[in-house]
Amino acid sequence: MDFSFSEEQTLLRNTIQSFIQDNYDFDKRQAIVKSEEGMKQENWKQFAELGLLGLPFSEEDGGLNFGSVETMIVAEEFGKGLVVEPYIQTVVTCGGFLRRANASIKEKYIPGVISGQDIWAFAYAEPQGRYNLNDLTTTATLDGDNYIINGYKSVVSGGPWANKFIVSVRTSGDQRDSDGVSVLIVDKNSEGLSIRDYPTVDGSRASELTLENVTISKDELIGEEGKGAELIELIVDETIAAICSEAIGAMKVLNDATVEYCKTRKQFGQPIGKFQVLQHRMVDMFMQYEQSVSMTYMVNLKLDEEYAERRKAASGAKVQIAKAAKFIGQSAVQLHGGMGMTDELNVGHYFKRLSMIENSYGNIDHHLKKYSSAE
Amino acid sequence: MDLAFTKEDENFRQEVKDFIDKNFPQKLKDIDKRTDLTREDMLSWHKVLYKKGWIAPQWPEEYGGTGWNITQRYIWDQECANMGTTPLIPFGLTMLGPVIIGFGNEDQKDWVLKGILSGNDWWCQGYSESGAGSDLASLRTKAEKVGDHYVVNGHKTWTTLAQFADWMFCLVRTKSDGKPQEGISFLLIDMKAEGIDVKPIITLDGGHEVNEVFLEDVKVPAENLVGEENMGWTIAKFLLGNERTGIAGVARSKKAIERLKDIASSEYMDGDNLINDSDFNSKIADLEVDLTALEYTELRTLAKESKGEGPGAESSILKIKGTEIQQRITELTMEAVGHYSNPYLTPAFERQGSNYLTIGPDYSHGVAQNYFNTRKTSIYGGSNEIQKNIIAKMVLGL
Amino acid sequence: MQLGFKDEDIKFRDEVRSFIKETFTEDMRKTLSLSKNGHAGKDLHVKWQKSLHQRGWMAPNWPEQYGGAGFTSTQKYIFESEMAREGAPRTIPFGLSMVAPVIMEFGSQEQKDKFLPDILESNVWWCQGYSEPGSGSDLASLQCKAENKGDHYLVNGTKIWTTMAQYADWIFCLVRTSKTEKPQQGISFLLIDMKSPGIEVRPLITIDNSPEPHQEVNQVFFEDVKVPIQNLIGEENKGWTYAKYLLEFERGTAYSPGLYRGIKNLKEIARDTSVGDGLTLLDDNDFLNKINECEIQIQAMEFVEHRIFSALSAGQRVGPESSILKTRGTEIGQYLQELAVEAIGYWSHPFVEDTFANVNEPSIGPEYAATITPEYYNGRKTTIYAGSNEIQRNIISKAVLGL
Ligand SMILES: Cc1cc2nc3c(=O)[nH]c(=O)nc-3n(C[C@H](O)[C@H](O)[C@H](O)COP(=O)(O)OP(=O)(O)OC[C@H]3O[C@@H](n4cnc5c(N)ncnc54)[C@H](O)[C@@H]3O)c2cc1C
Ligand SMILES: Cc1cc2nc3c(=O)[nH]c(=O)nc-3n(C[C@H](O)[C@H](O)[C@H](O)COP(=O)(O)OP(=O)(O)OC[C@H]3O[C@@H](n4cnc5c(N)ncnc54)[C@H](O)[C@@H]3O)c2cc1C
Ligand SMILES: Cc1cc2nc3c(=O)[nH]c(=O)nc-3n(C[C@H](O)[C@H](O)[C@H](O)COP(=O)(O)OP(=O)(O)OC[C@H]3O[C@@H](n4cnc5c(N)ncnc54)[C@H](O)[C@@H]3O)c2cc1C
Questions:
Q1: Domain A121-227 listed as CATH 3.40.190.10
Q2: How much is the average pLDDT of B36-46?
Q3: Residues C85, C23 contacting (CB under 8 angstroms)
Q4: Looking at beta carbons, which residues of chain B come within 8 Å of A295?
């Protein structure tokens, strides 16, 4: 058992830290968020140059063959900078599907991810389905060599930037059956696909997708037809591990900022950090953070375990991170007083990102239920 | 970074399991964990471990430790908890032992350590006084040097299991001017010495666990001073640091959650087992998530420790979260047994006949008492408020 | 001790209800529902207040001689409850319930004549200039300076977090008129015309991102602003006493009716949200428990309020116990907002900057979703302002528990 990072991993962390330092101070980030596009292509190029876009892919596929710990490091540091570029969506989530696809899909698509040419988004949520990944009304029916897709996908994170989507669809069975779920690749330019783009409260972008008789080749199927549910759950768990990592990065910044502020802000002739209520609140924030770090390490180290173990790890981590995200975010604002309420200060922005992470891929109630049922 | 145990570790785990299985005293297995154990009961497991050479894993090998690495110690703790062994009395093993190893003279190392290892000497901790709790340094029990001995006068309280103790390690005041911390000494006192009077304090659960210890003109040989005179505070703080690690009690809490689940599987609600109730289940899951987080926080601390980065003030997290979780488990357990948390079966009541009447299911016995008793954990060992002060100061720099 | 209202009270309640029904139009409701911070533009508020005035109900808390509604304390409670229950616009408090009572108590006859009627008729919009960048919880440390130049004061300094200063015609300000050992003793209470030369108002955008002109707070800068000496309230250096009087006056708002409304809204959202198997979030045990638990807390609040109002109507003064109302009321309110965000799930993500401008575009997700997350963010203010909840707890521990 070992919780230390290798030299290589530390190097990776340093690389990203200096990227953030150079390209992602708060003002630069705000400029990116407020720009028309909402992300910066230049940054994406840099990710490619740094090799980050190839992190989890095998050497055979042209990648670096790194594991979840490296992904954790990247996501954590990105969390500290509140990076909006859709790294997790493209590399961790969609990359996760592509890595497990057949040889021809790998060959066709992975180079485009690694080179930075393509940005991907995962379209899974539907309005009626809440957090149930298998609750799908979007259907795909086989017609000769093609699938014809009809349906609607909501709040597709990073959608406006993507030129490729991975879409979960129902190819057979009832609306919520785990059998009959399939995973398809849909190009943004497909006929019948209409997209509505919009900003999200945490400074990112998302899309609503309407699919009307979208026709794609049956070669665009990932995995076996009808057997996609397990794969989706696995990849969502990997994504959860990554956003938990992002969250601990963001929490760390908020905690440090709050402690620093309370040491300097004076009221009643003394730094407000001298008031014991505030001290204990900050200690609670610190403990929530440490507990979250622990759960994040744990889930990242357990992604390859057998199902029940992984299920508990991912749901457990998500529960802890969601709780901590809420507590730390709210407390940071409170302890900053009026300043915490302003758009000008970075605190509110971290708070918002954390509060969106709370319900991404399922909220506390959802994951507590999954946790209890994973025996 | 990885979580895997090595092959040797796994072999070790098997060895430990087998040993406990074969050697844990049958009598302790049968005793309902809640009824008062006798002194001999408490010592029986200690003696078995002593014979095996496994009584003091946390001590250096040369003093009788096991020479296990951190992982092995972790495995040992885990398996003890899994197999429900009776916890060992910590006063000698985890508190005084390391102090003597660090600060004692050769003579003390000899007799004190031997007595602790063998279990022949039962130690108790004489720190707290009625006026000195969290503010321990304000203690007033006085020791005056008179020739070759000290004369001790004063009053200690909350002294756990002093009723069984042969010896007490004690903080006493040897100087009253200057900073209060600078006039404290660390004395070893024979409980059979003249002038010592132990009076029980009954806690809210009805148990007799703590005592008041009155000291009137008690003569203590000067050679029973540990370290130098007025250096007691340094020693005490060293000890408090030791007291905190391991207080997380993760493995035992896991076991307690298992028991809670068993209970919930036997209890009924609306015609179904409580364990199938979604509300109750969510509460358990919530608790398990917290406990898992704590487990990994502890592992991270251990990993640091094994690299020689001693447990910092972060270990206060282990105390705070560990005790909070213990308290929540007892709370939920009480919730699970429902009405049957109410009956109060004192030992006297239970002894009324060999076939005394059982009220409610067996597992409901002592559940409420346990809940009440466990309130202590956030008070002692440095109350949780004090722990937060420590983190605020030492970690956050506030 | 008794529960329930007398017949005449019931009659009054029905009158209030029918007033709301007639006056609080669909249009107004719609506009108000688009707000992220509870404010919906000057026009709407002024219009609403003018109709209240017409009905004689603008000022429930004022003495009748000044045009108060003449309500009994039960009627006040009913009035407030009904308004909150329907989610009617709040009367803007700065003139009506903050500066007016101070003017009535400490102002000159001239000041009363000049300012009170315009407040009652909503002709003049007031804002509150207390806080400064360096003085929030420790208000008495304020620095904004007013020098007495004979016939006028010369004001220099800055005020911050000034709610809706962008609409304001006047601001009441705490200013420093002398440097004393006890900072509280050198403060004066000035009324300042916002059109005076040397005043600049800069918007501050809060985390709910309500864009100009809908921003909630501002920073107000004063540079050599001349304020006629007649605009001083009471005596120079006695401002702190007046400010404290105001705080006292402010206390004792009823929170529960508005919170019940929050529960009602929440249930509607939950009923509207599907969770699979044809079930809605309102069928979800976990979520329902949270709503119920919250409702029980509101019930407890309600009865604390009843106890306080019955003490009030028996002529007793409300003490610092009302800090309980502020603390619990705001915290429950925040929890309700949290639950609303939780309820809408992924629909909490889309961001609409100007909710008022985009009315004609189809919404992303359900219509009500766009304001729910911003409202949650904006709601964080309630435990910070009007005496932060930490300060309220300090007050309770000092004044009630004697610590
Ligand atoms: C079951 C049990 C067994 C014990 N066994 C022993 C034993 O064997 N030997 C021994 O010496 N002692 C023992 N103790 C004593 C224990 O260490 C003390 O109870 C503890 O140090 C707290 O002291 P106190 O009880 O005087 O509480 P106080 O110090 O009076 O504390 C009262 C409350 O005030 C809080 N508080 C105090 N100071 C601060 C501060 N600065 N900031 C914020 N909050 C503060 C505390 O957290 C607590 O909540 C035992 C206690 C119990 C309950
Ligand atoms: C949306 C909004 C609208 C507002 N509108 C107005 C307005 O119209 N006019 C106006 O004058 N002001 C207004 N305010 C200002 C408001 O009253 C102040 O924000 C408030 O008094 C807190 O001051 P601060 O922001 O400087 O925080 P600080 O006083 O710096 O407080 C920071 C943190 O320290 C805590 N703290 C401070 N002192 C203590 C203590 N002794 N013990 C424990 N904790 C303590 C606080 O609770 C808070 O958590 C508004 C504020 C907001 C957010
Ligand atoms: C716009 C605005 C609106 C406000 N509305 C309200 C309101 O409605 N109700 C309300 O109660 N407050 C309100 N406040 C907060 C108000 O600022 C404080 O209550 C006031 O500043 C305290 O007055 P004081 O200095 O006389 O302190 P006190 O009345 O003596 O103490 C008040 C608080 O300050 C703390 N405190 C005082 N001195 C010290 C010290 N030396 N060290 C540490 N802590 C200290 C006390 O513990 C207590 O928490 C408002 C503030 C603003 C800016």
A1: no
A2: 86
A3: no
A4: 289, 292-293, 296
The reply to whether omega before C374 is within 30° of 0 (cis) is no
Question: Which amino acid is present at A302?
Answer: K
CATH superfamily label, B249-395: Butyryl-CoA Dehydrogenase, subunit A, domain 3 (1.20.140.10)
Facing residue for C138 by CB, picked from A128, A202, A268: A268
Q: What is the mean pLDDT of chain A?
A: 97
Cα–Cα distance between C324 and C304 in angstroms, integer? 9
Comparing CB atoms, the residue among A297, A369, A371 nearest residue B289 is A371
Given a cut of 60, whether residue B350 has pLDDT beyond it is no
List the 199-258 stretch of C: residues with Cβ below 8 A of A. 204-207, 209, 217
Pocket test for ligand 3, best of C160, C216, C241, C247 (most atoms within 8 A of CB): C247
Q: What is the DSSP letter of C364?
A: S
Q: What is the β-pairing status of strands C152-160 and C170-176?
A: unpaired
pLDDT tens by residue, B66-83:
999 888 988 998 899 888
Residue B348's pLDDT is 54
- Domain extents in chain A: 7-118, 121-227, 229-373
Confidence band (pLDDT; 50, 70, 90) for C177? very high
Structure ipTM: 0.91
B326 Cβ contact partners less than 8 Å away, ≥ 6 residues apart: B249, B253, B256, B374, B377
Query: Which residues form the domain of C74?
Result: 7-91
Residue-wise pLDDT tens digits, B204-257: 988 899 999 999 999 999 999 999 999 999 998 887 766 555 678 899 999 999
Do residues C222 and C135 share a domain?
Answer: yes
Q: How many CA atoms are closer than 13 Å to the CA of B253, on its beta-carbon side?
A: 29
User: What is the torsional sign of CA C32, C34, C36, C40?
Assistant: negative
Q: How many residues does chain A have?
A: 375
Residues in chain B within 8 Å Cβ distance of C286: 278-279, 282
Chain B positions in Cβ-Cβ contact with residue A283 (cut-off 8 Å): 388, 391-392, 396
Q: Whose CA is nearest to atom 44 of ligand 1?
A: B385
Phi, psi for C252 (deg, rounded to 5): 90, 35
Q: Name the residue type at position A221.
A: L
In this complex, which chains have at least 3 CB pairs below 8 Å with chain B?
A, C
Per residue, the 3-state secondary structure of C323-338, as one string, reads: HHHHHHHHHHHHHHHH
Q: Is the pLDDT confidence value at B312 over 50?
A: yes
Cα of B309 from ligand 3 centre, angstroms: 44
Going from the C-alpha of B397 to that of each of A259, A262, A285, B389, the distances in angstroms are 8, 11, 14, 10
Kindly tell me if the per-residue pLDDT of B355 is higher than 50: no
Q: What class has domain A7-118? A: mainly alpha
Q: Whose CA is nearest to atom 8 of ligand 3?
A: C386
Distance from CA of B360 to the nearest CA of C (A): 29
Atom of ligand 2 nearest to the CA of C394: 42
**Parallel/antiparallel/unpaired status of strands A139-143 and B123-126:** unpaired
Q: How many residues can be counted in chain C?
A: 403
Which residues in chain C are closer than 8 Å to A342, comparing Cβ atoms?
A: 204-207
User: Shortest CA distance to A203 belongs to which of B320, C281, C273, C351?
Assistant: C351
Give the C-alpha separation, A77 to A16, whole Å.
Answer: 7
Nearest-angstrom CA–CA distance, A87 and A92: 7
Assess whether C217 and C312 both reside in one domain: no
B123-230: which CATH topology?
A: Butyryl-CoA Dehydrogenase, subunit A; domain 2 (2.40.110)
Single pTM value for the model: 0.93
C224 pLDDT higher than 60: yes
Residue B141: which of B227, B223, B218 has the closest Cα?
Answer: B218
Q: Do B296 and A295 touch (CB under 8 A)?
A: yes
With beta carbons less than 8 A apart as the criterion, state whether B297 and B318 touch.
yes
